Amino acid sequence: MSDIMKSIPFGQLMEWILAEHKATGQVFGIQKAYVADPEKTTEIFGRKLENPVGPAAGPHTQLAQNLVAAYYAGARFFELKTVQKMDGPELSACIPKPCIVAEDEAYNCEWSTELYVPQAMEEYIKGWMALHVISKEFGLGSPDGFQFNMSCGYNLEGIKDKKIDDFIEGMKDARDTEIFRECRTWLLEHITLFEHVTREDIEAIPSEICNSITLSTMHGCPPQEIENIVMYLLREKHINTYVKCNPTLLGYEFVRKAMDDLGYDYMAFTDFHFKDDLQYEDAVPMLRRLKEVAAQEGLSFGVKLTNTFPVDIKRQELPGEEMYMSGKALFPLSITVAARLAESFDGELPMSFSGGADQKNIDQIVGCGIWPVTVATVLLKPGGYKWMTRIAEKADECQTEKGGKVNVEEVKKLAADALGNANYKKGTKKAGKRMEEKSPLLDCLKKKDAPENKEFTAHRRVCGNCVDVCPNRANVLIEVPEMELLQILHVDYMCNECGNCRSFCQYAGAPYKDKFTLFATEEDMKDSTNNGFVVLDAEKKEVRVRVADKEETVKADQPSGILTEGLSKLICVVINKYAYLLG
Fold first, then answer.
1. For the chain, what is the radius of gyration of the CA atoms?
2. CA-CA 20 to 30 A from 547: which of 7, 338, 359, 361?
3. 3-class secondary-structure state, position 353
4. In whole angstroms, what is the distance from residue 541 CA to residue 471 CA?
């Protein structure tokens, strides 16, 4: 199977969103829409923000459909996936697959976008345009109530490279980009598809997408290099800048003891990164200098807490030698970094947060004056993007003051509590027993608590974990009227083989390899070993099908040979009712 994602054209993206919402009231499988309360709107970077939460730079902000799914679920601050000079196949070759496992605490071995940088910019602009129109079309909030935040790395030379410079300038103002004009034109030409969006609304979509950026640096980046990059972003690019800090600021002894005490004594790491990374005694004066420069430039400067934490691969969790830890085990470290910096700066250093934030602690974090808060690991768990709704609702209960003032005493209390809090200790619950066979092409196990009623969102429910936890929405629930259960279709062109769905499947194997797969082209099908099909002629229902290493070109509505009656029904329903999947 190819692990190269393909971007969805903007027109197909919008047709998918509108068709799915009209048929089911859902968007990319998200059943419950978050509707922003205008009374809760705050402000950051001189722009409005309906709530202070959203997805972190990572698997949930790489593609336009990720951004749409997150927004529909409640996100309003989007930290776009990091771009760097190395991109495309060159970068993909450096990322072993699978690259994500999130069964308890989470681990990954991915880093920046796997797209070419210009492609990444196109995805972000498509997402920007889509969010502006669905905010009004579906009554979700104000078109100016959300913000995009760039993330770039990893050294000054790379950030000054023309490719990255074009990206930064294009995201600051996209009016001259081809993709901005293309999206705008499509919306204007298809205005009749919308009930509540007007031509004036489309023409009013601003081209100034980002006025803020988060700097991500590699472990071991020298302090002077970090300072030089931020100086460049403030003075030359004139953009509000946050710098992402590492948990290694705490020192090896503290982190080792914290992990041991919380039950992660098996987590393997040496003192190498602690000695090689930015030291706390160097960080504080550097941050003071950068804060002063930002004030001189009339810009905001702060810290993002924190990066993921590098650990050794010892138990074959993922391929390779080193992976990055996130999730609940990271929270005590990240919030302790926050507490120490808050005390050093008397609460006057603005902070955003991502290390282990979830629905259990979001109100505590924001209550300390630390925001925006972005999440990733919790969205990789069963429930997926639906957790964003709960996180947004809890964040709504908090008071967010302007100015980035952090409550020092409150964050210190939160940090102290986290080091012994049961929510962050290693779980003792054992994973449920998995079936010995791989997941079938059709008819997965029924969800145990599915009610026996006739509504789409509840009846004939299968487990569906692989649908929920896929960041790219590459596993799709399909309703086939003649079948007892909903069917799961894997969409090849949306998958990058991150492997997260395998962690939560009740069967052995992995859904992204085992489930019946839709391919966009015959070439994609040849590049894969998955059982599946490609539509050659939708009108004639001519398809190429592969099952158990046998391939045939058949009519989808005429079962024969390897095309069973069940597969025939599934393919026909995809062609007739889910045509937006075909591209």
1. 24
2. 7
3. strand
4. 30
Core vs surface per residue 51-71: b (16+ CB within 10 A) or e: bbbbbbbbbbbbbbbbbbbbb
Q: What is the pLDDT of residue 1?
A: 46
Q: Which residue has the tokens 């012994």?
A: 420
Average of per-residue pLDDT values in the chain: 94
Count of CB atoms situated within 10 Å of the CB of 346:
10
Map tokens 């492609």 to a residue. Answer: 119
* 3-class DSSP state of 309: strand
Phi, psi of 338 (to 5 degrees): -60, -45
Going across the sheet that includes 542-547, the strands are 475-478, 487-491, 517-519, 532-537, 542-547, 550-555
> 110 — phi, psi (to 5°)?
-105, 170
Q: What is the pLDDT of residue 241?
A: 98
Alpha helix positions (H), 406-453: 408-418
CB neighbour burial string for 293-312, b if at least 16 within 10 angstroms, e if fewer: bbeeeebbbbbbbbbbbbbe
Map residue 214 onto helix, strand or coil: strand
489-498 pLDDT, tens per residue?
A: 999 999 999 9
Do residues 336 and 415 make contact, with C-beta atoms less than 8 angstroms apart?
Answer: yes
Distance from CA of residue 377 to its chain's centroid?
A: 9
Give the pairing type, strands 373-375 and 53-55.
Answer: parallel
The rounded distance, in Å, linking the Cα atoms of 182 and 10 is 8
* Cα 75 to Cα 67: distance, rounded to the nearest angstrom: 9
Instruction: Show the 3-state SS of 130-189.
Output: HHHHHHHHCCCCCCCCCEEEEEECCCHHHHHCHHHHHHHHHHHCCCCCHHHHHHHHHHHH
Give the tokens for residue 390.
């709960």
Element (H, E) at 121: helix 117-137
pLDDT of residue 448: 61
Q: 3-state class of 301 per DSSP?
A: strand
Residue 244 three-state SS: strand
Q: How far apart are CA 451 and CA 108, in angstroms?
A: 35
The reported pLDDT for the residue numbered 456 is: 40
The helix, strand and coil proportions of the chain, stated in percent and rounded to the nearest 5, come to 40, 15, 45
Query: pLDDT below 70 — which residues of the chain?
Result: 1-2, 403, 429-433, 447-460
Tell me which residue of 27, 34, 29 sits closest to 13, measured CA to CA. 27
* pLDDT of 48: 96
Cα distance between residue 323 and residue 57, in whole Å: 17
Q: What is the pLDDT of residue 378?
A: 98
Q: Is 199:138 a contact under the CB 8 Å cutoff?
A: no
Residue 404 neighbours by CB distance under 10 Å: 18
| Residue 578: both structure tokens together | 């889910």
The pLDDT assigned to 455 comes to: 45
